[in-house]
What we know:
There is one protein chain. Helix content is 66%, strand content 13%. It has helices spanning 5-49, 53-89, 92-98, 103-142, 144-155, 239-242, 260-287, 297-327, 329-343, 349-377, 387-405, and strands at 157-159, 163-166, 169-171, 174-176, 179-182, 191-203, 208-220, 223-230, 236-238. Strands 1, 2, 3, 4, 5, 6, 7, 8 and 9 form a nine-stranded antiparallel beta sheet that branches. Helix 1 (5-49) packs parallel to helix 4, helix 4 crosses helix 8 (297-327) and helix 7 runs antiparallel to helix 8 (297-327).
Amino acid sequence: MRPSGETVSFMRTLPRYVLSELAKVFSISLAALTLMMIVLGVVREATAQNLPLAAVVRLIPYILPDALRVAVPVTLLLAATCVYGRMSGSNEIVAAKSLGISPMAILWPAYIFAFLLSLVTVWLNDVAVSWGRNGMQRVVLDSVEEIVYGMLKAEGSFQSPAFSINVNRVEGRRLILPILSIGARGNAPAMTLRADWAELETDREADVLRILAHNATVNAEGMTMRVRGLFEPVPEIPLRDASRSQQVETVPSWMALRMIPEEKIKQKETIRRLNQEHAARAAYQMLSGDFKGLTDPQWQTRASQREAAWSRLCRLRLEPHRRWSAGFSCLCFVWVGAPMAIRRRKSDFLAVFFLCFLPILIVYYPMLIYGIDGAKNGTIPCFAIWTGNVLLLLWGGWLLRRVIRY
Length: 406
């Protein structure tokens, strides 16, 4: 039996209608949730770093990708349960079935929409960790001088992993009667400096914070020195050490996906070199009869270096799987949420949303965390991180089968 002209017209209009409804609910929900997450992220970072207002405003573009990559999967699930729950509750799905239209004709627009958004979310995951986090760090580093002055004016002291400073008071840019303690760095010993007054100066080209001290008394390695006028050499502290932000290193979780294949090759070469050096040293000591030297503490240090190199390779292997599996959670969430909303057509859409999201919180995210931790340690293969996605696909497939059949 061929479908009537009215049915064919309805089948052509239905996907556009579904996509339009999904887009509207998704856009509104995404805007609200993203705005809330940006505010929370900005407040958290500003509070932790004591950032000035100008730096807080500069943070917003860098926080946006991080907020979006978390908000997109959740708001897409909310949109799917809202649209399909309302359609099912108003018997639109039953009406479509009575015209001989399969539920798949109603569901495939959401699946395609979710697939495209999954690709966008993979990109957002990459941008958030490679561009966004580094940008946030750059804002903090550029604001170190303002942060230190702000803390000294408010509390009279400032501490970071590299140095600490206490002052009697602050007059403009002058720190009156400062006491500065700088930790040991490389060949430079730890130092305590007292002065009549001092000023801070940021050199952004050299990425250092300079401390200009006048009439200083310096104590280093038990030796005391008094200097009239400007203390030379002027103490310099790298901005990354001067800030209280997380130390930025070339770690896989901060790298762009395009850099990881080349980095894996370099890391394998590093592991090969460390293994060769380890074997060569062990063979030399055994051939020379120096068995006592095999218990030298340096062997433990070299073993730690090899373990750290292997751990970094595991992280490099994990990172692409982590970002792609997290991105495709969009498709998995809709795969479950849409048929669930159709089946529970008498339920409120929020009830359906939480009915879907609760198992995701209880099963999907713990499995994701377990897979990440295991893959980082090398105890489980990297592709195990997809286990949560596969379970959602199986659950959604079972729901879809029941929707199509009944």
